[in-house]
Amino acid sequence: MCGILFSLSNNGSILNLNDWNHLKDLNTKRGPDSQLLKQLNVKDSTLQFFSTVLHLRGPDVVPQPIEDSENILCWNGEIFGGLQVEHGQNDTQALMSYLRESSSQDEILSIFSRIEGPYAFVFWQASTKKLWFGRDCLGRRSLLTCHKQGSLMLSSVGLKSEGWKELEANGIYCIDFSEEVLQEGLYKIHLFPWSYSEEPLLPFPRLNTTIPDHLKAIETPQVEPLIDEDSEQTVNDFISVLSQSVKSRVADIPHLSQKNDDARVAILFSGGIDCTFLAALADHYLPKSEPIDLLNVAFENPRSEMAKNRPNKKKNKQNEKPEPSVLPQATYNTPDRVTGRASLEELRRIAPDRSWNFVEINVPYVEALEYRQHIIDLMFPLDTVMDMNMARKFVNYFVVPVATLALVGTAIRSQARPAKAHSHFMKPDHQTRQSWRQANGGLSVQDVGRSGGGV
Length: 455
Hints:
Distance between the termini: 32 Å
Number of strands: 15
Oligomer: single chain
Number of domains: 2
Structural class: alpha+beta
Largest sheet: 6 strands, antiparallel
Number of helices: 12
Radius of gyration: 27 Å
Order of helices and strands: EHEEEEHHEEEEEEEHEHEHHEHHHHH
Helix content: 25-40%
């Protein structure tokens, strides 16, 4: 997770410095390892490139924006395929080498269309005086845009103010500075939309909607369902592709501590079939001596607890014993916690040589309310209930300094190192730590869930 901040303004426009400085601070939290600003003057316009880096791969931090032959690149993404990237090579440097050798518009577009992986970028091509920016076709990396007072701004994280919106992931955008300036003082933005190959629709035969009367029902003994060779091959192909996807995310994660037996990978784990399957695949590509952390979040729900503890008012019938009142259950014994523990046992059964750390992360109701507005600001412009639920879980995962996080469950690799995870989202204060202790039997934030370690 890195940060991108870009501004384009002409001599007659006014760039809001308060907004700019605020955005710099927000993007710095996304990339605590390196922050760098580059400024470029083109005709009557000023271009500012600000990038922050969270170092995840390779031996050394590669500061951004990266500059080569007067080209400037801000990159927030990962290249899993499509372009040749050597083992241990930095994605940003590899991409810049491809872009440096590209001279035409078609070559630039070809490079970004071939990348397999999530990304957002801003790229200045000096030889053609063109500015390129955009996101992958699925929009898996954040990039917001704002047109204000004759200026254009792009940022990985926006401000909850008028004008900011998500940059559509419908293609690659380009500004050609050899063209004439528009009346508003800005240049025309060209869109090169993604093109998709359309698979032919296969005809579907007509089906009987009712069972014919002349058919007789025949009782058959129960047998194990069989699948034909084509279906079996499809299943095997799916597992193979998904396995390679997991391998590319977990196999080369560096050790961030001198202890090689510490967990390098943690999986956001609700116990569902998706995260359980991914955990089983991750087991194939990590040394058996390394544990894998399964992070399971549960939120305190006062209304649910009140309903559980409410006396049963059902009227008694004759000759029937009164039903006992619903007994209080564990505050954090939520459905995700129950399924998580059940799936943990299944993983221990199929991979007994692995140490599976089931990390129980319990979030008190007071704490969830305290950070609600902060979470809303972080996930802007997303605003659905599902967005809120997912964001709350992500933030609370980062509060607990457990292990390097490889979020394979969402196809996102985001390794949050314990020492810097707090600065990305929130810093637990004394009161928060006390609430954690009270909710977890005196355990500190660092201790939560560790007592339930692996096999």
